[in-house]
Write a structure and sequence with these properties.
- By secondary structure, the chain is an alpha/beta fold.
- 36% of the residues lie in helices and 14% in strands.
- It is built from 13 helices and 15 strands.
- The chain has a seven-stranded mixed sheet, with helices on both faces. Strands 11-12-15-14 form a four-stranded antiparallel sheet, with helices on one face.
- The longest helix has 23 residues.
- The radius of gyration is 23 Å and the shape is globular.
- Pfam families: Aminotran_5, KYNU_C.
- Its cofactor is pyridoxal 5'-phosphate.
């Protein structure tokens, strides 16, 4: 499509957008009495208006039923998480039995590493990406320390080539083959939080398995954003937060995937708790752990249903829309934002360098942009003028045009505000 940097053209794109009405399903913060242009759904998604009803339902059940809400609420609390299996399985490309929801992201990655990071004297190394999200880095270091090993001897980072912003798939494969028989685990962010690069998860998973390692994925920036086929890619395990692209609220529950090939492996250790025990016998208070068949067998504690309720509101919206429709708009609106940035770049003295891959197959709802010749003052100007974006040192802004609630007209207005902020400095 040939784009135009005009309000009329942006409005035309919105009129053709089959998802445009979902914008009205969300609350927007306001600046200067106007809805903001919200580019930080890669950090915290906006609140869906339908969320409150899901929370109120539990509050009412608690008030009217108290403990009996576990069994007699309209959505009984004792199996509340089972309502996620079907819709989440479609979002991440899994079988429903391979899905559960519990805890928060890094907690779940730690718990999954109990099962899938089992270092031996000869096979003990972990491969991750350079500049992984800090929480993942801390997790790796503490897991290695826990096993009495030295992080500098265990953690292997795949690095970017000199002068490049993104990691090449062939370099990940080469590092996997180089580490070879010493490799115990590959665990990488499916979408790099800083650059927005989408990794070739299918190819990397196959390469890790070829040398005998487990392969897991941190899907914090991928779930609800990227087309995933975790079962078919033969991924061993994955976890994701729900509060970015999936709009479940700050710090909310994490989704987990465990491939069915591992469900009946008695040799695979796990940290157990009564919510992972045989559901039909859970309240018999038996002394020996008998895990539920499937990913629910990794559950530990009674679930915080008040936290799960907003997530359920969100996944049911995703079920209405489907990932194919979301991704179709995602690609179009991200391309339009890229076009707007390139057009504004021609009109100002500063220059913009988009460090997110230009290939749509290697990016999703994020463009990370170096603002050469600009500093923090431009970011502050954008915020004061109703553009909520994310600043990363030294001078990168991350822009996430989330297809559920961002409009093409937002992209046009952002360009005009950006240009004015540069020209007026």
């Amino acid at each position: 499509m040939i784009f135009e940097n005009t309000r009329a053209f942006a409005q035309q794109l919105d009129s053709q957008d089959t998802l445009h009405h979902y914008r009205n399903e969300f609350y927007f913060p306001k600046v200067n009495d106007k809805d903001v242009i919200y580019f930080t759904g890669n950090s915290l998604g906006l609140q869906p208006k339908r969320t409150k009803a899901y929370i109120d339902e539990i509050m009412n059940d608690w008030a009217n039923l108290a403990v009996e809400g576990h069994f007699y609420a309209e959505k009984p609390w004792w199996d509340y998480q089972e309502r996620f299996a079907e819709p989440l399985s479609k979002i991440v490309g899994a079988k429903p039995l391979e899905i559960t929801v519990m805890n928060t992201l890094t907690v779940n990655l730690h718990l999954l590493m109990v099962s899938f990071y089992r270092p031996t004297k000869s096979r003990f190394k972990i491969i991750c990406e350079e500049k992984a999200f800090p929480s993942d880095q801390y997790m790796f270091q503490s897991q290695v320390d826990f096993h009495g090993l030295k992080p500098e001897e265990v953690i292997v980072e795949v690095k970017r080539r000199e002068g490049e912003h993104n990691i090449r798939t062939e370099d990940v494969i080469a590092k996997i083959n180089e580490v070879g028989d010493e490799l115990a685990l590959v665990l990488i962010g499916g979408v790099n939080y800083y650059t927005g690069q989408v990794f070739d998860m299918k190819t990397i998973t196959a390469a890790g398995h070829k040398v005998g390692a487990y392969v897991g994925w941190d899907l914090a920036h991928a779930a609800g954003n990227v087309k995933l086929e975790l079962h078919d890619w033969n991924v061993d395990f994955a976890a994701w937060c729900s509060y970015k692209y999936m709009n479940s609220g700050p710090g909310n529950a994490s989704g987990c995937f465990v491939h069915e090939k591992h469900h009946n492996n008695p040799e695979l250790p796990r940290f157990a708790g009564w919510w992972g025990h045989n559901k039909e016998r859970r309240f018999k208070m038996e002394p020996d752990f008998d895990p539920i068949q499937g990913a629910d067998g990794w559950q530990i504690s009674n679930l915080p249903v008040l936290s799960l309720a907003p997530y359920l509101a969100s996944v049911e919206m995703f079920a209405e829309i489907g990932m194919d429709a979301l991704i179709g708009k995602r690609d179009k609106i991200t391309s339009y934002l890229e076009f707007i940035l390139n057009e504004i770049d021609k009109e100002v003295d500063s220059s913009f360098e988009i460090i997110t891959p230009s290939n749509p197959a290697e990016r999703a709802s994020q463009l990370s942009v170096f603002l050469h010749g600009e500093g923090r003052s431009l970011f502050d100007y954008l915020m004061k003028n109703g553009v909520i974006t994310d600043w990363r040192e030294p001078n990168v802004i991350r822009l996430a045009p989330v297809p559920l609630y961002c409009s093409f007209e937002d992209m046009y207005h952002f360009g005009q505000i950006l240009k004015k902020g540069i020209l007026e400095k």
